[in-house]
Amino acid sequence: MISQVNRVVIQSQIVESIDPAATVITKMREQGISSLPRNYALVYEFLNTSDSAFIREYGALGVRPTQSQLDDIGMKFLPHHHGVKVVEETRERISDEMKGMIRLFRQDQATRQRYSDLLGDTSSRMSGQAASGSDALDALVQVLASATGDTLEKAEAIVRQMVDRASEMAQVKSELEEYKRLATVDPITGLSNRRAFDDRLSVVYRDKPSAARHALLIADIDHFKMFNDTYGHQVGDRVLSVVAKVMKSALSEDAFVARTGGEEFAIILEDASLDIARGIADRVRLVVERTSLKNHYEGLDCGRITITLGLCMASDAADAEELYSNADMALYVAKDAGRNQVKAFDTKLKLKKMLRFNR
Questions:
Q1: Under the phi-then-psi rule, with left for phi > 0, alpha for psi from -120 to 50, and beta for the rest, what region is 271?
Q2: Considering 156, 263, 289, 322, which one is annotated as catalytic?
Q3: What number of other Cβ atoms are within 10 A of residue 69's Cβ?
Q4: In this model, does residue 48 exceed pLDDT 60?
Q5: pTM above 0.70, yes or no
Q6: In angstroms, what CA-CA distances link 313 with 211, 214, 267, 268, 316?
Q7: DSSP assignment letter at 219
Q8: Active site residue 263
Q9: Which has the closest alpha carbon to 138: 155, 126, 150?
Q10: Which residue has the higher pLDDT, 84 or 281?
């Protein structure tokens, strides 16, 4: 029998593995870090990275680091860490441009209103002075002509300013589109990043009938820390890039591939049975295994790269969180079994994990 204390431990560990957000939030609270989106991204990366330099510098922050200290590390290790600031600044630019457009419209409206009032007043005066001779009428015509010219000149100036502001708005839109693209792309591998993966995984269960034919693969590069420690982070980044390229080449175009953090990758397959998904996972594994990492210019040979994969069918989970947790569970079983292999989730794996927690 499982004791009440052990049951609570098991439940908390399972919840934590299913909901990584809870782990991140807990860490932020422990350090007294404000709940800004970019801080969440930074702490998440710290908890999932194998980058020793990142771990060392972040670990030196201690309790209650300043926002400036956090941003310095974010800028150094996460190229798109300040995406939220970009959006905030862009929003302010849009707001300023919109306020400027409103001022222009009001100026134009006021100019037209003054001109309309002048036309009305001139018309009345012309009617009243029709018998006063041509001099009075000429004077009124001259006033009217001057006002008309001034009004047209102001209208043209307003139109020019509106065109300039419209051009600025188009530039802002272009920048936002580019940021939107970069915000979902991992800068090292060019694959989708964790944010894009979370969004894609969240829609799997929207259509329950079709969800059953989805599969999730989670892959880890074996002994990746050794590449970083032995050859440096530039070689480590090269390993990530090569693995991403090879994995992508071994998959069909409709497969969704992402780098989800550190040395971890994820693949979402549609319309696949367990046997098909297992076959695809093993094909990806073999293609990576057959790839050697060499730098012919420097004579550097890092040997062969291998990956370990965990697989779970969407039909074996109730929602996206459980699907990820189950695939992750299968991945760690495969690692315990010796790495460089594929393990598929089944209910026996979950039981084994719970029993291991209870030891």
A1: left
A2: 263
A3: 15
A4: yes
A5: no
A6: 9, 6, 12, 10, 5
A7: E
A8: yes
A9: 126
A10: 281
